Amino acid sequence: MRTRHAPSATRNLAITRAGIPAAPAVFVSPHQDDELLFMGAAIREHVARGRDVRVLLIGRGNKSSVRTRPCLQEMLDRTPCEKEFGAVRDREFEWSVRGLGATPIIPTWEDRLDENAVTPADVAAIIRKHAPSGSDLKTVSEYGDEYHSDHFACHDAVASLFAGGWTDMPPRYYTLCFRKQAVLDAGLRVVREGVSTPIAPEHQEPYKFVNVEESRWGVGDTSVRKFFSAQARDPFSYRVVETEPARLPALTTSPREPVAAPRPAPSPNVPARARVESWFRVPDM
Ligand SMILES: [Zn+2]
Questions:
Q1: 219 or 277, which is more confident?
Q2: Residue 1 lies in a domain
Q3: Over the chain, what is the mean pLDDT?
Q4: Which of 46, 172, 211, 279 has minimal Cβ neighbours within 10 Å of its Cβ?
């Protein structure tokens, strides 16, 4: 049972004269492009409300299959090394975050993590190092047919930092626009955010723009083009109201230690990408 910091325990939160929280809003992005696809309109909305909005990148971006795909090899006439590939993706991320009006936080390569090797404790350590305690944390939801272990790690790190008292502000979690029906089907509430700050083509451009001489490779769009198309049709953010942590165990260690939630691995017989394809559906609401 988690009683230490239920949302109703929110207290003594510093509010500025303008009536907005003084704590920075820190959106934790597991990988480059997650900030836009999961949380883009919400980021813009926080900016429009005058918040100090920062977007913290966790992954290195080095393990994407796009790096070794023929389309990229043909474009470059070579296969980039992981570090070069990750750096190009960082530039996409930085451009994207600035286009949303927020401040990118890109830790060093050493401070970040390889994809598929991320644990909640790792993510919590990165957040502690790069965001002030008491930050208003936001990240990806664990619901909506989410499958990526790195995304679960970011979710659990944020949940644990709140549960452990690192911040008093209840976290917010977001799902992809085309996954919201799956969240509703699971019986949870979904809140549309960014109604007056939708994502426009210019916000997606950093992940689509290609110019080899400028080291712009359009990696994001090559990687998950359907996600970008779905967002173009439904350009808002969808916050999942996670009233109770689904699988987060009670804190039995020091209350400031992050807790890793055990989670079954996806079926090894079904490639993750194929599972996403089978779940892909564009809602008509
Ligand atoms: Zn991701």
A1: 219
A2: no
A3: 85
A4: 211
Domain count, the chain: 1
Q: 285 in a domain, yes or no?
A: no
Query: Ligand 1 mean position to 61 CA, how many Å?
Result: 9
Beta bridge partners of 211: 216
State in Å: Cα 12 to ligand 1 middle.
Answer: 34
Dist. CA 96 → ligand 1 center (Å): 15
* Parent domain of 174: 19-279
CATH code of the domain in which 106 resides:
3.40.50
CA of 174 from ligand 1 middle (Å) equals 12
Percent of all residues in the chain with a pLDDT value above 70, rounded to a whole number: 81
Q: 133 in a domain, yes or no? A: yes
Q: What are phi and psi of 89, to 5 degrees?
A: -65, -35
Q: Is residue 39 part of a domain?
A: yes
* Ligand 1: centre distance to CA 212 (Å): 24
**pLDDT digit string, tens, across residues 38-87:** 999 999 999 999 999 999 999 999 999 999 999 999 999 999 999 999 99
Q: Is the dihedral of CA 84, 85, 86, 89 positive or negative?
A: positive
pTM of the model: 0.82
